[in-house]
Design brief:
Blueprint: E1 2-10, E2 19-29, E3 35-45, E4 54-57, E5 63-69, E6 72-73, E7 76-79, E8 82-85, E9 93-103, E10 114-121, E11 130-135, E12 146-147, E13 153-158, E14 161-166, E15 175-182, H1 190-217
Parallel strand pairs: 1-10, 2-11
Antiparallel strand pairs: 1-4, 2-3, 3-9, 4-8, 5-6, 5-9, 7-8, 10-15, 11-14, 12-15, 13-14
Length: about 220
């Protein structure tokens, strides 16, 4: 089966007294296979240890769209796959982060169904509530979408949309994985896309060879 497997991990930058209350991931797949991912994270900051920087490990080749905290753009820097959010201490209380980025589709193997899978790691601090929502680029009957069973989670599907919820808190070092399978054609085949590029390159090389031969004989 074709697999789209990406990883997003909470990095250990939080002081022990602070905690992640809610971590929601919204994934929207385009017809091309590109994924637009929006993460919403609610952080409760303890006044004894004002928290400064939030670290996030993103999928390879991720392109950041925006980073927002409490409804306003937040400063950030990147170092490879690692994203550093924030530059100053935060006020005591709850802060809501929203991070949006896009990732290109990988080149998964072929099979009977397409599969889109996502994995969230709790890092050193975990999260009290984990939810994930996946939206396919077109309406797909619920009977044609198959949820890959996993422990300690609830899920439902409806018209090209799937939602998941962990039934327990995600502890330090733990992870939650979600996956669904759907018919071919909902997302464009990577093999077709790359095959098309290869054909174009071959035609260009042949054209160049023909032109070179014509010029040489003049």
């Amino acid at each position: 089966m074709r697999r789209i497997v990406l990883m997003a991990a909470l990095a250990g930058a939080l002081p022990v007294q602070s905690k992640v209350l809610d971590f929601h991931t919204d994934i929207r797949a385009a017809r091309s296979g590109e994924l637009t991912v929006t993460e919403r994270l609610t952080l409760e900051v303890d006044e004894r240890r004002p928290y400064t920087v939030l670290l996030r490990d993103l999928p390879a080749d991720a392109r950041i769209v925006d980073v927002i905290r409490n409804g306003h753009p937040e400063a950030y820097t990147t170092d490879g796959r690692r994203l550093r959010i924030g530059r100053s201490a935060l006020d005591h209380g709850r802060h809501t982060y929203q991070l949006t980025y896009r990732t290109p589709r990988p080149r998964p193997p072929g099979g009977e169904l397409d599969e889109l899978a996502w994995r969230i790691e709790g890092g050193d601090y975990g999260a009290e509530r984990i939810t994930v929502e996946i939206m396919l680029p077109q309406r797909v009957p619920a009977r044609d979408i198959r949820i890959v069973p996993a422990k300690d989670q609830q899920s439902f599907v409806r018209d090209g949309r799937a939602a998941f919820r962990s039934t327990r808190a995600l502890g330090p070092g733990e992870a939650m994985s979600v996956a669904l399978r759907f018919p071919h054609g909902v997302v464009a085949s990577p093999r077709f896309a790359y095959g098309g590029i290869a054909i174009v390159l071959v035609l260009l090389l042949l054209s160049a060879a023909v032109l070179y031969g014509i010029r040489k004989n003049l």
